[in-house]
Write a structure and sequence with these properties.
alpha+beta; three-stranded antiparallel beta sheet
Length: 106
Amino acid sequence: MDSNFNRVLRVIKRHFFNELKNINSNEMIQDYKTAILIYCQEKYKNLPCYELISQTGPDHESTFEVRILINGDEYGRGKGKSKKDAEQQAAREAIIRMIENTYEEK
């Protein structure tokens, strides 16, 4: 409460880096898209952008691949049986990348 976000994040990463890196959809974060949305709004004052890269397979069995852009830079990619699932995976990858980048800056 008495420190800034980045300092708190560094402390959390120092103690919980491996656990954060191994987060999956059944654990701590259930909605990666919401988590990354809130983070981007707070830190960058803008929203992440999801772009459809490809849709393969027949309509009833499609696989979607999307990427997430934050400030114009790609932070992650995801695949899924729906656009929403692919976006969740891309957001998860973006969160992991941000955690790793912040940990490396320490």
